[in-house]
Amino acid sequence: AEGWGEEMALSPRESEIARLLADGLSRPQIAKSLKISPHTVCALSTRVYRKLGVRTRAHLARVMLGTQGA
């Protein structure tokens, strides 16, 4: 569908959050690691899930694995 690629495009920070979530880090761990607030991690992860059309970390991990080779 047209426009699908635009929805899928993550910002650099969103991509970083997505990778860390897919690696199994908790939101508080991500916040501490990136020196940002847990609230910011929550907001960014919600955006990542919406943009990628996923609802679970397992699905996120599969999507992230599929994009690494692209």
Keywords:
single chain, 70 residues, mainly alpha, 5 helices, globular
Structure overview:
By secondary structure, this protein is mostly helical. It has helices at residues 4-8, 12-22, 27-34, 38-52, 57-68. Helix 2 (12-22) crosses helix 4 (38-52) and helix 3 (27-34) packs across helix 4.
Q: What structural class should be given to the helix and strand makeup?
A: mainly alpha
Oligomer: single chain
For the record, give the distance between the C-alpha atoms at the N and C termini, rounded to a whole number: 19 Å
Biggest sheet details: none
Number of helices: 5
How many β strands by DSSP? 0
- Globally, the shape reads globular
Radius of gyration: 12 Å
Helix content: over 70%
- Chain-averaged pLDDT: 87
Q: Secondary-structure element sequence? A: HHHHH
Topology summary:
Blueprint: H1 4-8, H2 12-22, H3 27-34, H4 38-52, H5 57-68
Helix pairs in contact: 2-4, 2-5, 3-4
Please give a quick description of this structure.
By secondary structure, the chain is mostly helical. It is built from 5 helices and no strands.
